[in-house]
Design goal:
There is one protein chain. The chain is mostly helical and 286 residues long. The chain has one domain (2-285). It has ten helices and no strands. The protein has helices at 2-16, 18-47, 52-58, 62-71, 73-107, 112-155, 162-196, 202-215, 217-243, 250-285. It starts with a helix and ends with a helix.
Length: 286
C-alpha cells in the first residue's frame, strides 16, 4: 500500500540524513542554552540567595511563582517577556530551516550551501503558510470551545455529575486534535506544492493541499497517525522517566540532561521523517 511505502521509505530517508538532523539539533541546543541562561539569570535576580531555588528543583511549586509575581512583578514580567522572544526566535528559525530540509529530502543528500539557499528562498512563502495555518487553528478554537460551552450550559440540567462536564471537555479536545492534525497536513502539503512548483502563490498551495488531503483523506490521515505514533510513545516515555527523577543530585541532573537531549534529537528526526513521508505520499497520489 502507498501508506506503508511512504511510511517505511520516509523513515529510511530520514536515517540517511543524519548529518542534517544533527545540524538541526545543534541549532535547537544553542537556542535552548540561550533561553536557559536568560531564564536562570532572571530567576537568580528575583530569588537572590533564597533556598527556594533548591526547593523548586525538587518539585514544581506553583506558589513559588506566585510569590515572585507578588514580590517582584517587574522581574516576573521580564522573565516571561524573554521567554516569548525566544519562542518567537525559535519559531522563525524552525520556519527558516524547513526550506533547507525540503531541499535535502529532494536531493537525498545534505549540502550546507544548498540547504541555506533553499532556506532563504522559501522563508517568506513558508512563513505565510504558517500564518495561514495559525489563523485556521485560531478559527477552529474559536468555534469548537464556545460551541461546547454553550452546549454544556444548555444540557446542564440533564447532567447528573461532574463526569458529564469532563466528557464534554474531552470530546471538545478530541475534535480539536482531529482538526489540528488536518491543519498540520495542510501546512506540510501546501509547503511541498509551493516548493516543488517554485510558486509564490501560497493561497494556491493551501487550496491544493486541502483538495489533495480530502480527495485522499483516509490515506493521508492514516499516514499522519502512523507518523505521530512514535512521537506519542516518545513523549509518554519521557514523562514516565522524568517523573521518577528529581534534580537534587549532580548524577540526576546529568542523567535528565542526557534524556532531554536524546528526546530533542529524536523529535527532530521524527519531524524530518514526517516531511519525507508526506513528500512520498504526495508523489504517489499526485
Amino acid at each position: 500500500m502507498n501508506i506503508f511505502k511512504a511510511y517505511i521509505k520516509g523513515f529510511l530517508n530520514s536515517v540517511r540524513l543524519y548529518r542534517m538532523i544533527f545540524i538541526l539539533y545543534t541549532i535547537n541546543f544553542v537556542v535552548a542554552i540561550l533561553l536557559a541562561i536568560s531564564f536562570f539569570n532572571s530567576l537568580h535576580l528575583s530569588v537572590g540567595h533564597s533556598l527556594e531555588r533548591e526547593t523548586i528543583l525538587k518539585q514544581f511549586d506553583f506558589s513559588f511563582f506566585v510569590d515572585i509575581s507578588n514580590q517582584s512583578l517587574d522581574v516576573f514580567i521580564n522573565i516571561f517577556c524573554q521567554i516569548q522572544w525566544f519562542v518567537l526566535i525559535y519559531w522563525l528559525l524552525s520556519v527558516f530551516v524547513t526550506g533547507g530540509v525540503f531541499q535535502t529530502i529532494v536531493d537525498a543528500k545534505f549540502n550546507i550551501t544548498t540547504f541555506l539557499i533553499a532556506s532563504l528562498r522559501n522563508f517568506i512563502k513558508f512563513f505565510g503558510i504558517n500564518i495561514l495555518s495559525l489563523v485556521f487553528h485560531i478559527l477552529i478554537i474559536a468555534i469548537i470551545y464556545p460551541a461546547f460551552y454553550y452546549i454544556s450550559v444548555a444540557l446542564s440540567s440533564y447532567f447528573t455529575s461532574e463526569n458529564s462536564y469532563y466528557i464534554m471537555a474531552a470530546t471538545a479536545m478530541f475534535i480539536h486534535l482531529f482538526f489540528f492534525l488536518i491543519i498540520l497536513m495542510i501546512n506540510d502539503y501546501a509547503k511541498f506544492f509551493v516548493f516543488t512548483n517554485r510558486s509564490n502563490n501560497i493561497f494556491k498551495g493551501v487550496i491544493y493541499a486541502i483538495r489533495f488531503i480530502f480527495y485522499n483523506f483516509l490515506k493521508t490521515y492514516s499516514l499522519l497517525l502512523f507518523l505521530i505514533l512514535p512521537s506519542g510513545i516518545l513523549i509518554g516515555s519521557y514523562f514516565l522517566l522524568a517523573g521518577d527523577l528529581y534534580m537534587t543530585t549532580i548524577l540526576n541532573i546529568i542523567l535528565m540532561f542526557l534524556i532531554q537531549q536524546i528526546f530533542i534529537f529524536l523529535k527532530i528526526g521524527f519531524k524530518v521523517w514526517r516531511f519525507s513521508s508526506h513528500k512520498l505520499m504526495n508523489n504517489f497520489l499526485y
